[in-house]
Structure formats: structure tokens, C-alpha cells
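Example 3.2
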Amino acid sequence: MKPESSQYKWVMLGLFWLIYFSFGMIRSSIYPLITPIAQDLELTNTQIGSILGIFLLLYVFLALPIGLVIDRIGIRKSLLAGISVLSLSGILRAYASSYETLLLSVGLMGLVGPTVSVGVPKAVASWFQGEERGTATGIYGTGMFIGTATATAITTSIILPYLGSWRSTLGIYGVFGLLVTIIWILLGKESDPTQSSGSFSGMVQALKRIIKNREIWLVTALGFSLMLSSYGLGSWLPKLLELKDVEFALAGVLASIHSWFGLIGGPGLPILARKISRKYAIILSIVIQGITIYLIGTNVGIILILSLILYGIFSAGMFPLLFVTMMEVPEVGSEFMGVASGLWFSVGAVGGFIGPYLVGYLLDVTGSTYWGIVALTVIMELSLLASFMLKK
């Protein structure tokens, strides 16, 4: 059965969306709870920054090897391992009693998180063909943004007041992940159970060809700056708003705005790219992200709201543009998408760790959020150099 002729691909796309939704909730549920967690465990901002980024640091070492494994064993087993351990990470956070135990419980997400981040793009490339890949990538990507927005919005305004403690609040998201795991066990399939990506040595040769590809490295460089800025801003945003004297519960709601508007950018920017070219859409996205990051960090009121909306649209839309660009590189395709996206996440995760850590460190050193925001803005706009070098 060919992927493009199977109607079951839409069921699979729904499952990919659900997995990304769960991933987004578990990952981001800790963001609005920085203040009570730091007070309870007596943590510095630098320690909080390392906790927020630790799982991505593990991506640096594991994303590429896991990409090779996924290309060999398939996505059904890989995603099962990923979502089940992600859920365990969410549950164990509820029992953290110190900096070290919270760091380890969050870090556990990084051990298998790459199976989701790498496995889903690989699966989409297998189940979908042509322009449907861009559409499917934009759709499943909204799962992460809705999951992030939901957790950020309801954690301090609804869940925490109802359950009464940050521990129970984090644990409930892990339990939800277990329900998603059961659904995947029941419905998840391979696009073609008989398909193989060839021998391990063949994949190593494919990796060598991919590493030599200029376009792949440009896309990877863009991924580095995108993840650094998005994780640096997104993970600290509730706390940054609190420091602007926004009320605790309201800060979580406001911080969710950019994720909700990511629902427009995820599928919308790839559509725009068909009219103005993918390269120009990426350049436009970078320019607007840099400007809005600075405005978010330095303004309140209507300018803050509008900046959050624009940032959400264009940061969310850039992810599918980069992944579709990788899929269409001749050395990659659907067969070796696991290897290519593994490389992308290995490098991008360095940025994903640096971003939250850098903001926390600069907050401790300077006592202000301003210099962290400036750093994120400059790094984002420097990525224009790589975007200008992309093929049109």
C-alpha cells in the first residue's frame, strides 16, 4: 500500500498531532511554575535556566544516533518509546525535592525526546508526498503550539488553584501523556511494514552525503538560531511578564498568546511561501521574529500583545519551512529523513539549551531581563546571513 493512496495517513496525522500536543504540554507545564518551584527548592535563575534547557542538551548527543535507529526499526516502536518515557518524565517531576532531582526528571525527557522530534518528520515524509508534506508538517506542528499554549494558559489559572500544589500540577500532565501512549499502541502503524532503509553501513554512507550538503548545513544553522531564541524566550516568558508586575496567573495566560497564534503560522507561512518562495518567507520570518522579541521584552500593553501575536505566527511558521526544505534535498527524501532531522536537532538543541540558560544567567548577573532579550534578538537577526545563502 503506497502512503499517498492510503486514507489511513490522515488518522496517522491525527496521532502525530496528539503526540506533539502531549509533548508540548509536558515540556512547557513547568514554565509558568518557575516562581513557586524556585521558592520551594531555593533555586537561582541560572539553575532554573539549566533545568529548562537540560533536555535539549541531551538532544545534542542523542538526536543523530536516534535518527539512525529510527530509520532502521521504524516509527511505531520509536514513538512508543518516546511518548511513554516523556510521560514518565512528567510524573517524576512531581516528586523532585532538590535542584538535582528536578534536573534529572526533566533531563529524562531528553533521553527519548528525539524519538518524537526526529520520528514524526520521518513518518510524515513516509506517509505523505509532494505538497501534502508541507501541509501535513504545518498541521502536526500545531499540536506542539496548542499543547504549549494550553499548558501555559491553564496551569496557574486553573490547574494549580484546583490541585493546590505545583507537584500535583506537573504530575497530571504526565498522566495525560500515558493516555496518549495507550492510543498510540492501539492505532499507530508503519506506512509500509516491509520497507527498509537498508543496512546500517548504507545509512552511514547516506549520513556522509548529507553532511557534505551545503543546503542541509544552512537549514541546520537556521534551526540553531530558531531554537535558541524560541526556547530562550518561551521558557522564561511567564517569569519575564511577572517581573513587569503582571499578576502571577495572568502572566501564564498572556505568555500563551504567541503559541495560540502559532496555529496560524504553522500551516499559513508554508502557504505564503508558495507565492513568494520559501527562501523569502524564511527571511521575512527572521526579520519579524527579531523585532518582536525585542518589543516583547521591552514593552507592555497593546505593543506587547501585538508583538506576541506576530512572533507566534512567524516563529511557528518557520519550523515547517525548514523541515520541508530538508525533505526535498535529493540526498534525504523520506528514506533518510531520520538521519537528516537527527543532525538538525543535534545542532539545534545546542541553541535550545543555550537560550534558557543565557537568559537566566544574564538575569542573575545584571538583575535585568533586558540584556537577555537583546542577546536573543541579535542572535536571531544574525541568522539572516544563512537565510540569504539558501537556494531560492
